[in-house]
Amino acid sequence: MDNNHTFEAKLGAPKPASHYLKFWFKNQELSAPHAAKVLGVSKSTVTRLLNGEGKLSIEIANKLFVKYNIDPYLLFSLDAQYKSHIAKSIV
Questions:
Q1: All structural domains of the chain
Q2: Three-class SS string for the chain?
Q3: pTM over the 0.90 mark
């Protein structure tokens, strides 16, 4: 039995950063319109990001760090783990 599959089965499949950002926004009772205003981006940019439809850019990651102290390294690491999982599942 492959230990990686067993380990992953126990943890569950990785999720993209957007999943955790959406959870964080909800937990903070932070709306997309308010966050958009604070971040200086459009509401649709925030909404697409939270719904996993928009790509996390370096600019947005930096703004999330400056305004909300959300670590860009963590966000990009979560996305990398998710993309790696998807790539392996295609094989």
A1: 17-90 (1.10.260.40)
A2: CCHHHHHHHHHCCCCCHHHHHHHHHHHCCCCHHHHHHHHCCCHHHHHHHHCCCCCCCHHHHHHHHHHHCCCHHHHHHHHHHHHHHHHHHHC
A3: no
